Amino acid sequence: MRLLEYQGRILLKEAGIPVPGGAVAGTPEEAYEIASKQLDGRAVVKAQVPVGGRGKAGGIKIVDSPDEARKVSKSLLGSELKGEEISRLLLVEPVDIEQEFYISVLLDRGTKGPIVIFSIEGGVDIEEVAAKTPDKIHKVRPDPIMGLQPYQIRELLYQAEFEGEIFKEFYGLVEKLFQAYQEYGATLVEINPVALTKEGELIALDSKVKIDDDSRAMEEVERILPEGEERRDKTELERKAAEVGLQYVELDGTIGVIGNGAGLVMATLDVLDQKGGQPANFLDVGGGADADLMAKAYEIVTEKKGLEGLFINIFGGITRCDEIAKGIVKALAEKEADFPLVVRLTGTNEKQGRKILEENGISAAESLDEGAEAVIEKSSIR
Ligand code: GDP
Ligand code: MN
Predict the structure, then answer these.
(1) pTM for the full predicted model
(2) Is 102 one of the annotated active-site residues of the chain?
(3) Which among 19, 173, 232, 359 is least buried, having the fewest CB atoms inside 10 angstroms?
(4) Same domain, 53 and 156
(5) Predicted confidence (pLDDT) per residue in 238-264, tens digit
């Protein structure tokens, strides 16, 4: 479950990490009230949507008066930010920032343990920092049983050359963040940025928290979070897929993936990754999908912005390849692909399926390897 900023903030606060004062508004009037009564006028108005990069996209505004808070809230509420409807705003007390840092603890599936990441380049996209100045990112891997050790925290913070009080404060913050990660059964707790204020204090200006739904700590998380909350843990497309009973998950890459069966879909993602491709999302059409369901799957996956390729990988068992092929043709008739499309069909009725595709000018790959390579190559030379 991915929490919205204001929900993650509640957990951080509970863990003893300082956050700016503020409250959540669902209407311009509420925003006015919060700005005038709780924040003496000035406020940072922040769109609560389950996506990052809100600042750059225009979802974070600093206002100077309650009237302006109302006006800005009116224009933000109900509008869309990166494809997500804004239904809530967080209003917080503005902070005078001296410097911004990045800190996170996440579950590294490679080493099957936590990893703590710190950077003196906070407030910006961490992937960008990793690509441009990798030496500005430091990582330590605590032992899952022994936990985060003092020497690891020192090693992590070394690059920042903190001295005196601020070192101690940061040290404490890292400890608390790690504790929060463990106690809340999180797979990610990220603060970007942690701000050092002009007054020399550390404060968490953003939060990104993901909780493992199967964790025993879910009870604790549910207890801390306000009751009856709308849980915006799914993106618009994930919700749309869930409505028609399809399993769809959004990722960060560029190649869309459709497959049938969880195992096959996971294998498809792995093979794409091994060959240097980055999946943008994946959708599992399940067993026995007919042409209509396949067409619906295509519609959802291709609605994702910035797709550079689509890989459809079907292993026909109870699913019939001719039905899948019909579905693809139907979907393409409604919405043309403006990116390379690679289909791999094998199993029940594969000959009929391939024939339908070929008649419609779509070529089919024989194997998973071949298909994955083809989609990566075609998408890279666009
Ligand atoms: P994101 O863009 O979705 O990651 O949203 P953030 O909550 O991280 O806000 C983006 C940026 O807005 C931060 O990196 C800060 O530079 C800025 N910002 C957020 N809160 C404050 C604040 O209280 N004061 C000032 N001056 N800037 C802020
Ligand atoms: Mn941020």
Answers:
(1) 0.73
(2) yes
(3) 359
(4) no
(5) 888 988 889 999 998 999 999 999 999
